[in-house]
Amino acid sequence: MKRIFLFLMCFCCLLPISIGGTTSNNNRDEEEIDLLGDLPKPILKSLVNPIQAFITDQFIDVVFNSAIGTIEISIYDETENIVYQRSVDTYAGQHVFIDITSFEEGVYTIEFVNSKNEYLAGEFEI
């Protein structure tokens, strides 16, 4: 019984450290960009988009969850000017990092288009 009590005491003492143990800074935590569109999911009824995008203060991390062929990545500013464009031959688990440190403050649209003009797109703000 003492062992259980000691275990619970140790667990309760360590729990706040593991839950709230982040350091405070002015950096943006990684946030997922909500992507919508008609790019098909590779597995019927899959809950995960074939592409996910996460933004921090310095970059966008694009994750390809499956091989979906060649994808054109474009980022547009508020006036619909292209500020970034790249073509990627995808594979499952691939990450593409996009440096956004030179982007001015504002709202941007990121778009992923395949060879059939099927797409996913989402907005993010800097």
Characterization of the model:
The chain is globular, with a radius of gyration of 20 Å. The protein starts with a helix and ends with a strand. The protein has one helix and nine strands. The protein has one helix at 2-20; strands at residues 31-33, 36-37, 51-55, 59-64, 70-76, 82-89, 94-99, 107-113, 119-125. It has 126 residues and is of the alpha+beta class. The strands form two sheets. Strands 2-9-8-5-6 form a five-stranded antiparallel beta sheet, with no helix packed on it. The chain has a four-stranded antiparallel beta sheet with strand order 1-3-4-7, with no helix packed on it.
Features of this protein?
single chain, 126 residues, alpha+beta, 4-stranded antiparallel sheet, 40% strand, disordered N terminus
What is the topological layout?
Layout: H1 2-20, E1 31-33, E2 36-37, E3 51-55, E4 59-64, E5 70-76, E6 82-89, E7 94-99, E8 107-113, E9 119-125
Antiparallel strand pairs: 1-3, 2-9, 3-4, 4-7, 5-6, 5-8, 8-9
Biggest sheet: strands side by side, in what order?
Answer: 2-9-8-5-6
| Broad shape | globular
Mean of the pLDDT scores? 81
Number of helices: 1
What is this structure, in a nutshell?
The chain is of the alpha+beta class. It is 15% helix and 40% strand. It has one helix at residues 2-20, and strands at residues 31-33, 36-37, 51-55, 59-64, 70-76, 82-89, 94-99, 107-113, 119-125.
